[in-house]
């Protein structure tokens, strides 16, 4: 066991740790009540970042403004039978955000993420497929939150 631990330590392996952010306070604007926006606010608070309810004053050290521009779910038919029945759907989750200082300096300009998932569809299993669709959207929301957190952690200085 000791040999395994020393071998892993020697190769540079380390457990994933909480990210270090270059800011201490964040103010979320626009789509504040969207599911991803709420989840982001919870994740930031859990990481030790203060989520402000009022816009920060320009010049306040360690404060940033997170603008949630777009947060939407999309559903498109991509496959049909010869009789016109839906057989396959494409689920999309589109999230667009930006990060700036209170003074207006862009730290992350408008950044759009688009996640896509394919799902089969059956009229006879419509209720089950609807539940599966909701689970896939929840999974995509979770993916978006983690990706945004990694992008926010890439900001090291204001």
From TrEMBL:
UniProt GO molecular function: lipopolysaccharide binding
Function: Together with LptD, is involved in the assembly of lipopolysaccharide (LPS) at the surface of the outer membrane. Required for the proper assembly of LptD. Binds LPS and may serve as the LPS recognition site at the outer membrane.
Signal peptide: none
Protein name per Swiss-Prot or TrEMBL: LPS-assembly lipoprotein LptE
Gene symbol of the encoding locus: lptE
Protein family (similarity comment): Belongs to the LptE lipoprotein family.
Keywords for the protein's UniProt record, in alphabetical order: Cell outer membrane, Lipoprotein, Membrane, Palmitate, Signal
Subunit structure: Component of the lipopolysaccharide transport and assembly complex. Interacts with LptD.
GO BP annotation list: Gram-negative-bacterium-type cell outer membrane assembly; lipopolysaccharide transport
PANTHER family assigned: LPS-ASSEMBLY LIPOPROTEIN LPTE
InterPro entries: LPS_assembly_LptE
One annotated Gene Ontology cellular component of this protein: cell outer membrane
Membrane spanning stretches: none
